[in-house]
Amino acid sequence: MAFLTDALEGLAGLPQPAVLAVTGALTLAECTLGVGFLAPGESALLLASTTVTSVPRFLVMWLVVSVCAVAGDSIGYYLGRRFGDRLRDSKLVRRMGRQHWDKASELLRRRGAWAVFAARFMPVVRTLVPASAGASKLEYRRFLLASIAGAVCWSALHIGIGSAAGASAKYIESVFNGAMWVLMAVAVVIGVVVVLRRRKRDTAAEVKELEEVA
């Protein structure tokens, strides 16, 4: 049963500029305050990365995703700079939870630009830290350097994982078939769901750990 590899091949057959455009747009949206809780940027990146089958494709997607991630961070920073601490009392932040904003602000006070880098790997916090950095008047040059470093590492990691997953699926399909492949596919899906849920659940713990290290 080759439904998964057929789907991956269909995705790989799409025009590469279109894949890059959609992935970049979702990444930018996810990294922007507010939109980040609606846009599945990380999931889209992993899926799109299954089309990466060569070094040139890897480099192009790496560049596009990194630039879009930094752009999204910069928009969040600008909003924080523009509206300041008033964002904490905004309807959007109240909906997310003021406690998350307070944690992001405290993390920035303790760790400075390092918090911008670390937050890139935290699904919830990375949406709030850029705006909080702007509100706290963190120097943009320091913010930008940390944002670039985080975006480059984060995008390389996810593109690598997605590309490896796509290659592995095709290899497994050539070895297994029928019921065995169905079980393998189900296991992969369950594994991805468990990892994503665990990452969201552990976000608060990661923030607390960083605060204790400070």
TrEMBL record:
Residues 51-163 form the VTT domain. The keyword tRNA-binding does not apply. It holds the Pfam family VTT_dom. Keywords: Cell membrane, Membrane, Transmembrane, Transmembrane helix. The chain crosses the membrane at residues 59-79, 143-166, 178-196. Its main location: membrane. It is a multi-pass membrane protein. It is found in: Cell membrane. GO terms for cellular component: plasma membrane. It comes from the Bacteria. Belongs to the DedA family. This is DedA family protein. It comes from Lentzea alba.
